[in-house]
Amino acid sequence: MKGIINIIINKMVQSMFRAGFLVRVTHTLLTWAITLILFLHDTDLRKYEEQGELLLPLLFFLLVVLSVLLYFAVSLMDPGFVLTDTVKGVQGSNEEMESMIPQASTPRLRRCGYCLLQQPMRAKHCQTCKRCVRRFDHHCPWIENCVGERNHRWFVVYLLVQLLALLWALHIALSGISPTVTWELWFRVNGFLLAALGVVGVFSVVVVLLLGCHLYLVSINCTTWEFMSRHRISYLKNCGDEENPFDRGIFCNLWDFFCICRTMVWEQVYQRKTPNPV
Questions:
Q1: For residue 215, which of 156, 166, 154 has the smallest C-alpha distance?
Q2: Mind listing the pLDDT tens digit for each residue in 20-75?
Q3: Which residue among the candidates 132, 140, 146, 222 is catalytic per the annotation?
Q4: Which residue among 24, 238, 243, 263 is buried most deeply as judged by most CB within 10 Å?
């Protein structure tokens, strides 16, 4: 067991330093720099500390720590790379079974022209990662990793936690803005807080848009790639404009996305929903 854990840790460390190191370091430094500014200036956090009320400052600190941990988890996690030609599904804990899919009712599985592996349905080759990814959503430059079947739910959870931290930081930064006699003095006194406010405000808008888009796509069981390139995808281009062969209703889509932790055999889902495709 210890050997397996060591192998996983070594792979994560290698992944950290192999690609996206600068992006991850910049994100981490920026996060802690803004947190330090909020704690050192005359904000609500500082006032709570001086009054001996440490609960809210501690909760804010723990929320920031959680957002950083989730960022690295999503950034370093295997998004669902396709490793073999065999299309397999996982049911229960570790039970694997090979899917038997009639070619007459399902579009033919294509072979990737780059890594030469047979792609499962909804998989796509990422030009940046140079790997095929199951249920490919998009390659995110923010985390310098693909968002796919294995880390998509954690990406959405990360966005939610990050949004809570950003909105709270926005409120704290506003509470520390001090009025002064002149504009020049006002900018000098509040310069660091204004810079933090600007960065947090921009990131808040970006995260709100990202989270809203992903929650909508999850609710209809569609990926960003499928939504943007529907007309070029073989298993979707013959479907109607409003037809999604993977949509099982909002509740079932959300339940499957957040609560079902297994590799889905999308060919079987497609076959059940479209028994006689055109």
A1: 156
A2: 788 999 999 999 999 999 999 888 888 888 888 899 999 999 999 999 999 999 99
A3: 140
A4: 24
CA torsion 70-165-27-35 (nearest 10°) is -130
Backbone torsions φ then ψ of 131, nearest 5 degrees: -140, 155
Please state, in angstroms and rounded to a whole number, the distance separating the CA atoms of residues 250 and 59. Answer: 33
Q: Which residue has the tokens 């310069």?
A: 191
Give the type of residue at 101: I
pLDDT in the model for residue 229: 87
Question: Nearest CA to 66 among 160, 148, 149?
Answer: 160
Answering whether pTM is above 0.90, one says no
Between strands 131-133 and 124-126, the pairing is antiparallel
To the query of whether residue 239 is one of the catalytic residues in this protein, the response is: no
Q: Both tokens of residue 266?
A: 């999308």
